């Protein structure tokens, strides 16, 4: 006969821990209050509390899916479209609720808020930008409108399903966090390498030109049939060639002088047809550049620090292809003379004009005891301007 097994009683502390875990498990597996558009109270049959997302005005695209008030499906859309969808949230409390923050999960998404009062008056919320707080106060029984705007050109991953979320944080404990979601599949029948044409720094008097390759994506029977109308200061040429049985397009485009100094951004449209010859939305290509003077200074100023960086060099370069110039002299203001030594050396040339020059500024001892700022004036020959000023700053230790 087997001896009777004696099961020891668990210590009181362990029993208490087990009881606490058992009580916590059901709540840990259920969604947190306000984590989705439907509140926990509504799912359990109780009256919803806090800021409640209202049912959608239109049914979902897939009839087999139940309607979800926090979700919208844009379906398959072409690259270049700008999409917009509103979500509506009602304050069912007796006190105002402040929407403190709105955070989209993708830079392609721009949310905006407004509020319709029971009287019909509409109040616009603050602009939703990084760091914005307390963007909208929703009075009792008022309805907030969250408009979600998506520029498909900015969606990084094309030809794949995307689920984008927008998180809403409020000051109400019944709906502390809410989240809405949108689904889309951005169709891009072509791959572009690079994704746009960046001319970088170009002189205003010359302009610049760049290029890119465009290849069709497997599964699409689209083709590029030509260039759309070009902006007035843009030149472009489109050609095609065959690579391993696939047509690849080469696009060469640039900006024509004279140009205004500053940031320049243009959009080119390529005309598209499907396999049946039907026109499709154009393929947009970005063309950007920073338009500057003919001379480029890199870095833009001298920075000197006592005993750490007692000398500093900059390069003065002509951005005009094939254009050489000379630096004839270097001078300071009267108050700064005697503080520095200046060395000027042509890059890649022993004497005479050069395409680029190195200018080195060095401190003389004893060093100044206070911070100094000023400019070094260069006298030029054969350049766009007869004189060029380069700022400097000296930091004592």
Question: How would you characterize this protein structure?
Answer:
The protein is mainly beta. The protein has three domains: 157 residues, Immunoglobulin-like, CATH 2.60.40; 103 residues, Immunoglobulin-like; 101 residues, Immunoglobulins (Immunoglobulin-like, Sandwich). It contains two helices and 26 strands. A hairpin with a 6-residue loop joins strand 9 and strand 10. The longest helix has 18 residues.
Descriptive tags:
397 residues; mainly beta; Immunoglobulin-like; 3 domains; 50% strand; disordered N terminus
Distance between the termini: 91 Å
Name of the CATH architecture of the largest domain: Sandwich
General shape: flat
Structural class of the helix and strand makeup? mainly beta
Assign the CATH class of the largest domain: Mainly Beta
Count of domains: 3
Please tell me how large the radius of gyration is: 32 Å
- Mean pLDDT equals 85
Strand content: over 45%
CATH topology of the largest domain: Immunoglobulin-like
Oligomer type: single chain
Approximately how much helix is present in the residues? under 10%
Secondary structure layout:
Layout: H1 12-29, H2 40-43, E1 51-53, E2 71-78, E3 82-91, E4 97-104, E5 109-116, E6 122-124, E7 136-138, E8 143-151, E9 161-170, E10 177-187, E11 190-193, E12 197-203, E13 208-216, E14 223-227, E15 234-243, E16 246-255, E17 262-273, E18 279-292, E19 295-298, E20 302-305, E21 311-318, E22 326-331, E23 340-346, E24 356-363, E25 372-381, E26 387-395
Parallel strand pairs: 2-10, 12-18, 20-26
Antiparallel strand pairs: 1-3, 3-8, 4-7, 4-9, 5-6, 5-8, 9-10, 11-13, 13-16, 14-17, 15-16, 17-18, 19-21, 21-24, 22-25, 23-24, 25-26
